[in-house]
Amino acid sequence: MISENLSAIFYLISGVLFILALRGLSSPETSRQGNFFGIVGMVIAITVTFLSTGNFSSGFAYVLIFLLIGGLIGAFIAYKIPMTAMPELVAGFHSLVGLAAVFVAIAAFLNPEAFNLGSLGDIKLGSLIEMSIGAAVGAITFSGSVIAFLKLQGIMSGSPITFKGQHPLNALILISIVVVTYLLCSTQSSNFFWILLAISFLIGFLLIIPIGGADMPVVISMLNSYSGWAAAGIGFTLENTALIITGALVGSSGAILSYIMCKGMNRSFFNVILGGFGATEQSSSTGSKEQKPVKSGNAEDAAFLMKNASSVIIVPGYGMAVAQAQHALREMVDTLKKNDIKVSYAIHPVAGRMPGHMNVLLAEANVAYDEVFELEEINNDFANADVAFVIGANDVTNPAAKNDPQSPIYGMPVLDVEKCKSVLFVKRSLSPGYAGIDNSLFYKENTLMLFADAKKMTEEITKNL
Amino acid sequence: MEIDPFIFRLSIFILSIFIGYYVVWSVTPSLHTPLMSVTNAISSVIIVGAIIAGLAGNSENIFSISSTFGFLAISLASINIFGGFLVTHRMLAMYKKKKKDK
């Protein structure tokens, strides 16, 4: 058994290692080292916890068994999961953090002696408040992430679910969470604790159902943030520095990612959270109801255009992930490069279903990360490029965001694809994108539409190059 | 008058938020997905609470309600720890620089 002070120091060390783990992600070269720091920090935290309780008699074997069960499941999932399913995986993992926070809070509430928090029915006020916050946020994280997971997995429809009186209901529940927490703290009654958990689960569910599929990058980042705050709440309860530091890091990390995602869509955080976007957006597309002529082509035309180009910019989107076309795409690019054509990739901040989604898929397909550029880095290059190859993206290229103040996406930063000499659009059909807005690019003189499955089309083009 | 230890924890918390703020802004956007999976893994350090709860059961009653919740939380958190770090490792291993050939 080691002293409280010594274990506190070790927890501090693991907290610092977690900071270094995030720091490592500032560049791909240092990132693997960062991940290693994270693992070391975790090993230290777990070992110190064992040593500080000094109780190796009764439950120790079971702790190891449950740890191993979880570890095996986790490792299995991590090895099996395809990279395209990363958003679902992360949402699923968030739900587990949330539920773990809830369980730890329940355990602490039922057996406060084990945590030095007082005794059952007489828990220290401060600890009880911290515990309630941790449990409530954990529960919200859990049910919210489960909904996000179901929507991403396609089990639940990605379209927003809205009903009348939704916002007042949510507000009412949020207020009642505060009231129940107050009652819990003043009466110490376990009934209020269970009620608190129940309504927190409910609000997590209600908060996420009105949010549409393409807003998932914001939702996932937000839930990431919540899982951090839940951990921090439990950290305060357990008086554990490692948990407090980590909770704060994760909480602010998720908040920043949500901010970046919102900015990428030019929407306020509240606009996203209140949901319903993309459900009934008809206003701006009404003007273009009549069929406009569209030039559609086949793989041969596309191959011809690209063969005669000297530089090509690829714009991938969620459609590429759905079609699993990243490998086929890279093969096409390899062929292009053999013909001395300069190829680069342009990634919009909200392309895909989570932050950095496209980058991971391209990395999986062996695309070097220094050929992949962010919106600000590459947007000026479109004017000098010969061909823009848009694969599975739509709204992020829509010029309406720049020149149509009526458009719901007006003001959103978009890739200046229309400045290219010619634009190739790989798309299944002419249907508008998620935002329900017509894309004027489809009807432009220099646009060639390639209606097909992204993967098949890319393979066809490669054959014709 | 002595300062409440809570204030010290609060100080750590607030300062860590600032550290997180600056550290996360310096993360390159192409690594935002690994950032999420690694934050997932490290937030599962909540396992320390679960272990304390799991070990708290006495020998006559290892599976008291409280320690059972502890055991379950251990499994949940360790799915995340192993899964999160491994999947991050898998992703980061794929980020390669352009080869200097040709």
Name some characteristics of this structure.
heterodimer; A: 465 residues; alpha/beta; two-stranded antiparallel ribbon; 8 strands; B: 4 helices; 0% strand; flat
Describe the structure.
The complex is a heterodimer of chains A (465) and B (102). Chain A has 465 residues and is α/β, with parallel strands linked by helices. Chain A has helices at residues 4-23, 28-53, 60-80, 86-110, 125-153, 166-187, 190-208, 216-238, 241-264, 269-274, 299-307, 318-323, 326-338, 357-364, 375-378, 400-403, 454-464, and strands spanning 118-119, 122-123, 311-316, 342-347, 372-374, 387-391, 422-427, 447-451. In chain A, the strands form two sheets. Chain A has a six-stranded parallel beta sheet. In chain A, strands 1-2 form a two-stranded antiparallel ribbon. In chain A, helix 1 runs parallel beside helix 9 (241-264), helix 5 (125-153) runs parallel beside helix 7 (190-208) and helix 6 (166-187) packs antiparallel against helix 7. Chain A is elongated and about 75 Å long. Chain B contains four helices and no strands. Chain B has helices at 5-25, 32-43, 47-55, 65-94. The termini of chain B are far apart. The chains are: A alpha/beta (465), B mainly alpha (102).
- What oligomeric assembly is this protein in? heterodimer
Radius of gyration based on Cα positions of chain A: 25 Å
N- to C-terminal separation of chain A? 69 Å
Q: Which two protein chains have the largest interface (Cβ within 8 Å of the partner's Cβ), and how many residues from each?
A: A-B, 117 and 84 residues
Low-pLDDT stretches of chain A: 279-289
Please, how many helices of chain B? 4
Termini separation of chain B comes to 72 Å
Mean pLDDT of chain B: 88
How would you classify the helix and strand content of chain A by structural class? alpha/beta
Estimated share of beta-strand residues of chain A: 5-15%
